[in-house]
Amino acid sequence: MKRCVSLLIKAPMRRYKSRYKSGKKTFLHYAALVSAILMLGTSVNASEPSDGYHRVVPGDTLWDISERYYGTPNEWPLLQQLNTISQPTKLQPNTVVDLGAFDPFPLTVLYRSGEVWIVEEANEIHLTRGDTVHVGATVQTGAGSSVTLQMRDGARAVVPSNSRVVLQREGERGITFYLEEGEVESYVPPNRTQRRAYNIETNAGVLGVRGTHFRARYVDNTLLTAVYDGNVSAQSRISAEQASVSRDEGARISTAGDIRVVPLLPPPDDVQITSFAPDGIQANVLSPRPGATYRAQIADDPDFLNILQEQRSRDGQHSFTGLMPGFYHLRVSAVDELGIEGRSAAFVVLHNDHRVSVVREGGAWIFEWAYLAQQTYRLQLAEDSEFSTILLNYEAKHRGPLKVSRLPESVVYWRVVSENERTGVTEVIDAGTLNGPG
Q: Strand 231-236 vs strand 146-150: parallel, antiparallel, or unpaired?
């Protein structure tokens, strides 16, 4: 027998708010001793690299090769991984060792959000995840966009929105990001050698980097940097002035050529975070620092390599919308009066995993969700999960909650279906059960 279900439209409800470890030095010393003994009885000529390769001669070890070409023996594990070598102390003569892992080019698009492209004269080539970017390329990010570029030695550069950089080779194995406008946030391995320089260059000055996490921003012909780990060497291109910028320090290179080094602002300690579907994630600094502005970023990884959205505000109030349910990483930082960004406070946020609010009120159920333009919505109730026995199939023509009463006492399955009026695409935006689990 068909059951009767009544439905009432209500007014809108309130929403409430791996590296080789030092402990293994004995093995290194033993290997070096074996290498020395072998070389005593063998007269050899050192192999010269050709097109990024080294040809093994008797007595070679991977750390010998690493130290010879890159100034440190500590990068031998990368050579071992690249060349799939099982015994790094027993290399066979005439074996060819690929040194390409230490050339930063080509770069790989690790993450991309929004519109990012390579500019070639009058052409724009849009980038997507997995694409390669070669020396000489000009990378441009659009408004609200971001791209993370990974070098072959593990260094990474995050280029946020409205930025433009030209990728240049520095020496034989180094790289320079010529920052024409915008910002670059860099993560550089600590064992990077001088032969593989990593520089940020602008018309105002140059930042030379070895093993650090830092930001560089170029705006109004002024170069700003903030160092979160390691050390950066700052040099003006207008004057002869130089400065060393250490961890927890920032610097400003002005149009006059002077360099001002200041301590970074601490991370905000009074951030209130709320998450409501479909309203989004809100991050509010309760006691903003006088004279400071604030920046908030949302990413789906803890290292903030894949930045999905970001906002700047003067009052510390931020709201991120259009996010699917799930876990997100949020960081908020204060920017001082010079424009130098301080340390960030980072949070993990669970965005409400229910896109439809379902509340029981007496003997009735109230359904509420966000209505988007050019979308048609249906609330469907059924006796089974396949929705073969429909109890209700109601097209919601009014923006507001729906109240359903006189439901059977058994488990009732529900779902809200959305159809795009322009494309005709239909999807289930949320589903669950009443009078039972879920």
A: unpaired
Helix (H) or strand (E) holding 82: helix 76-83
Burial level of 388, CB count in 10 A (0-12/13-18/19+)?
A: exposed
> pLDDT for 397-429, tens place per residue?
877 889 999 888 889 999 999 888 877 878 888
Strand-strand pairing, 293-299 and 307-313: antiparallel
For the domain made up of 107-263, give the CATH fold: Jelly Rolls (2.60.120)
Asked if the 6-12+354-434 domain carries CATH number 2.60.40.10, the reply is: yes
Q: Taking a C-beta distance cutoff of 8 angstroms, is the pair 184, 158 a contact?
A: yes
What class, spelled out in words, does domain 42-102 have in CATH?
Answer: alpha beta
**In Å, what is the CA distance from 247 to each residue of 12, 136, 179, 227, 408?**
51, 31, 22, 5, 65
Residue 71: CB partners within 8 Å, gap ≥ 6?
193, 194, 195
Separation of alpha carbons 130 and 234, rounded Å: 33
Inter-CA distances, 231 with 109, 214, 372, 406, 425, Å: 26, 9, 49, 69, 52
The answer to whether the CB of 352 falls within 8 A of the CB of 276 is yes
Q: Which two tokens stand for residue 117?
A: 């492209």
Nearest to 286 by CA among 249, 358, 334: 334
DSSP state of 33: H
CB 239 within 8 A of CB 258: yes
Q: Is domain 271-351 given the CATH code 2.60.40.10 in the classification?
A: yes
pLDDT at 194: 56
Output Rg (C-alpha) for the chain, integer angstroms. 29
| pLDDT tens-digit map of 169-217 | 988 778 999 999 999 999 987 756 555 789 999 999 999 987 789 999 9
Instruction: Please report, as a single letter, which amino acid is at residue 39.
Output: M
Of 174, 176, 170, whose CA–CA distance to 192 is shortest? 174
End-to-end CA distance of the chain: 26
CB 278 within 8 A of CB 370: yes
* Sign of the alpha-carbon torsion through 295, 296, 297, 302: positive
* Predicted TM-score of the model (pTM): 0.63
Same fold? 107-263, 271-351: no
C-beta of residue 148 within 8 angstroms of C-beta of residue 175: no
Euclidean distance between CA atoms 410 and 124, whole angstroms: 59
* Tokens coding 85: 């070598």
